[in-house]
Write a structure and sequence with these properties.
CATH topology of the largest domain: Rossmann fold
Strand content: 5-15%
CATH architecture of the largest domain: 3-Layer(aba) Sandwich
CATH superfamily of the largest domain: NAD(P)-binding Rossmann-like Domain
Strand order of the largest sheet: 3-2-1-4-5-6
Distance between the termini: 57 Å
Radius of gyration: 20 Å
Structural class: alpha/beta
Largest sheet: 6 strands, parallel
Number of helices: 14
Number of strands: 9
Length: about 290
């Protein structure tokens, strides 16, 4: 399939590679052109000068963008995805608010369908094509782009209606960020008593409390600054802010989520915004009652 890919950050670059490896005819676009040129040279594909050109030369466009504002900039305007004539699918795979997905769907030109299909999984899962995809449509509706999902993910959950993928991604991420925070507290508590971090982590991994995320992120939790950043504190804070607004809209109490958000905001104020979210362990070591 002729597919465009917009957004070549930590996750997007891996996803584009896997689309090319699966045999799809890939065209890239990125706000920083040099990233697109470098990846295109590596995997042997084309680069579009604008999002509009990306849409004009492909049958479907997948985006992996940071937030609603970045997505709006890519879709709107004379050089945006929506300025291209003709019908196509635009598959939103980043973490967006449900309201933004609804606005995109409402403003899409005739013949253009917006599908929210955010992913769960870290950069290694993206590299290994092992992402879990949460699609805001039925399986039948997604039939034409099953090969795209199969190229980047290990499993797709079809949530039957537009926007449901976005909601589910926020729900999953709120759990992930909550685990991140409570792990930081648990390790800090154990260390304060004199237990070595490695031994504390051994016990946590062997307990009923362990989730897969904790195991594959163990090196980061034990020495965050010795490893490449996979997901920043700033992005985690953004996720939790969007989740809190959704909870307010739906009338849902999320007390744990709001504590997690408050700690992420506090960490940002202390200069942690660009560090991996595993740095919350170090942040909590600095916190005093």
């Amino acid at each position: 399939m002729r597919v465009g890919f917009a957004g070549l950050g930590r996750m997007g670059a891996h996803m584009a590679r896997n689309l090319a490896r699966a045999g799809h005819d890939v065209t890239l676009w990125n706000r920083s052109r040099d990233k697109a040129d470098a990846l295109a040279a590596e995997i042997g594909c084309a680069v579009a000068a604008t999002p509009r050109e990306l849409a004009e030369t492909t049958h479907a466009v997948m985006t992996m963008l940071a937030d609603d504002a970045a997505s709006t900039a890519v879709h709107d305007g004379p050089d945006g995805l929506f300025a291209a004539p003709g019908g196509r699918r635009v598959i939103e795979m980043g973490t967006m608010s449900p309201g933004h997905i609804a606005a995109l769907a409402a403003s899409a030109p005739d013949g253009v369908r917006v599908v929210d299909a955010p992913v769960s999984g870290a950069t290694q899962a993206a590299a290994d094509a092992q992402l879990m995809i949460m699609a805001g449509c039925s399986e039948a509706e997604a039939m034409e782009f099953h090969p795209l999902f199969d190229a980047v993910g290990r499993k797709t959950i079809y949530l039957e209606r537009p926007g449901a993928g976005s909601v589910m991604k926020l729900a999953v991420n709120s759990l992930i960020h909550g685990l991140n925070q409570t792990l930081a507290e648990a390790l800090t508590l154990a260390e304060a008593s004199g237990i070595a971090p490695e031994l504390a982590f051994d016990a946590i991994e062997a307990s009923a409390a362990c989730a897969p995320m904790l195991s594959y992120r163990r090196p980061l939790y034990l020495d965050e600054q010795a490893h490449a950043v996979t997901f920043t504190v700033a992005l985690a804070r953004k996720d939790m802010e969007v989740t809190a607004r959704l909870a307010d809209t739906l009338g849902v109490a999320m007390p744990q989520g709001r504590v997690t958000l408050a700690k992420l905001r506090a960490a940002e104020r202390r200069g942690y915004e660009s560090r991996d979210m595993a740095a919350m362990v170090n942040f909590m070591r600095e916190e005093k009652r």
